[in-house]
Design a protein that fits this description.
This protein is an alpha+beta fold. Helix content is 21%, strand content 27%. It folds into 3 domains: 103 residues, OB fold (Dihydrolipoamide Acetyltransferase, E2P), CATH 2.40.50; 53 residues, Irregular (Dihydrolipoamide Transferase); 219 residues, Chloramphenicol acetyltransferase-like domain (Chloramphenicol Acetyltransferase). It has 7 helices and 24 strands. The strands form 6 sheets. Strands 15, 18, 19, 20, 21, 22, 23 and 24 form an 8-stranded mixed sheet that branches. A 6-stranded mixed sheet has the order 7-2-4-5-10-9, with no helix packed on it. It starts with a strand and ends in a 7-residue tail after the last helix.
Length: 448
């Protein structure tokens, strides 16, 4: 028998540390290669780490909730010498997905990837009301506030799948535009100072501790993970790019009519449609007419330069249970209405669960933030680093509006945009926002 140390790998994001969120194994458990041993949280995503060894779990070297640097030993395995020592660990790379989360497989162990074992606890179970679903799916449903008895099952033998639950939950997704979303769980929880954080604190909640000042009425929340990355990026953007914001109030009644027609169309029967879809198309269309909003200010050794991108990686700022994420749709300019709608649906499902893969959060060129989901009319958003523009879409609500000299109830919204004034001047910003507004007022402009 021999003991092998498994160190925290670089998961391919260029990051230096991660938090151990939850152990999936205990000392004495028998594991196969690629069995998930723990879940980690980096500054960008939740990632499941698979075992690079086959053997028995020896010792868990890091407590849940601890943040450790890449290269730190986190777990030991007892292996059979006859099996041969595995090859040296190599930087892990996302190679497969299970249940929509990033699952890393293979650490240079040689041989083909071994599929994850189906543990007895993960076999489908039938409840007293006749719903077939695995325990992880039941937990996901509980976290999202979904009643499994109301979910249409598409899995084998009538089993409810993850996609079934997420599709059902998407009807109250963070991207809807008319109503304020109903969060199933709080995102942060203050734990009374005299008490320890309860075991099994729900994922996404942040335990607190007494403040350094010793004031029992004040507690400190550690800044880490997504919050740490977001704060750093926002400070960098706010204090390096001179922000200018412009906005316009518009009559979006025809957009609402188009959304209603698309929802009723058989071609969109399996696709969720919202005003965000029309907004996305409007931003792509307007960026083509004013390319500088899709550019970036780049500092080089030879001096500053402006990189004008002739493609659109459209970012969608998403308020998820884990915090603010900005995944983007690659080459969105090449997508038709239906394909763009599907891409937004996929983005919604993964962001809603807080498991957006790192690759989806890199390389954005311009961002939309849909603050209307929180009932906000307008705002002055901060530009995502590496970009020159961000557009905020306010809530769409019925208001009195003058049409042909008469006051009528219309669906009204406000579109605002913040821009890097080093890259684009006032006329360009105003022209871009006016173009976005014109499409929301008359979606027929999208027909080339």
């Amino acid at each position: 028998m021999s003991t092998q140390n498994f160190t925290l790998p670089d998961v391919g994001e260029g990051l230096t540390e991660a938090e151990i969120v939850a152990w999936k194994v205990a000392p004495g458990d028998t594991v196969a290669i690629n069995d998930v041993v723990c879940e980690i949280e980096t500054a960008k995503s939740l990632v499941e780490l698979p075992s690079p060894y086959a053997g028995v779990v020896g010792e868990l070297l890091v407590d849940e909730g601890a943040t450790v640097e890449v290269g730190t030993p986190i777990i030991t395995f007892v292996t059979e010498p006859a099996a041969g020592a595995p090859a040296a660990q190599a930087p892990a790379a996302p190679a497969a997905e299970e249940g929509g989360g990033s699952v890393l497989v293979g650490y240079g162990t040689g041989g083909g990837a071994t599929s994850r074992r189906k543990r007895p606890a993960e076999r489908p179970v039938r409840s007293s009301v006749g719903v077939i679903a695995k325990p992880p799916i039941r937990k996901l449903a509980r976290d999202l506030g979904v009643d499994l008895t109301t979910v249409a099952a598409t899995g084998a033998d009538g089993e409810v799948t993850r996609d079934d639950v997420m599709k059902h939950a998407s009807q109250a997704s963070v991207f809807r535009n008319i109503e304020t979303p109903e969060w199933g769980t709080v995102r942060e929880e203050t734990v009374p100072a005299p008490q320890a954080a309860p075991a099994g604190l729900a994922r996404g909640l942040t335990a607190t501790r007494p403040s350094a000042a010793g004031d029992d009425r004040t507690e400190s929340i550690p800044v880490k993970g997504v919050r740490k990355a977001t704060s750093s990026a926002m400070v960098q953007s706010a204090y390096s790019a001179p922000h200018v914001t412009v906005w316009k109030e518009i009559d979006a009644s025809r957009t609402m009519e188009l959304v209603k027609r698309l929802k009723a169309s058989p071609d969109y029967a399996d696709i969720r449609v919202s005003p965000l879809l029309i907004m996305a198309r409007a931003v792509i269309w307007a960026a083509r007419r004013t390319p500088m909003v899709n550019a970036a200010w780049i500092e080089t050794e030879a001096g500053a330069e402006i990189a004008v991108r002739h493609y659109v990686n459209l970012g969608i700022a998403a308020a998820t249970p884990r915090g603010l994420l900005v995944p983007n749709i690659k080459d969105a300019q090449d997508l038709g209405m239906k394909d763009l709608a599907r891409a937004l649906n996929r983005l919604t499902l993964t962001a809603r669960e807080g498991k957006t893969p790192p690759a989806d959060q890199q390389g954005g060129t311009i961002t939309i933030t849909n603050i209307g989901v929180f009932g906000m009319d307008a705002g002055t958003p901060i530009i995502n680093p590496g970009e020159a523009g961000i557009v905020a879409m306010g809530t769409i609500s019925q208001k009195p509006w003058v049409v042909d000299g008469e006051v009528r109830p219309r669906w009204v919204t406000t579109v605002a945009g913040s821009f890097d004034h080093r890259v684009i001047d006032g006329d360009g910003m105003s022209r871009f926002i006016a173009d976005v507004a014109s499409v929301l007022e008359e979606p027929a402009l999208l027909v080339d």
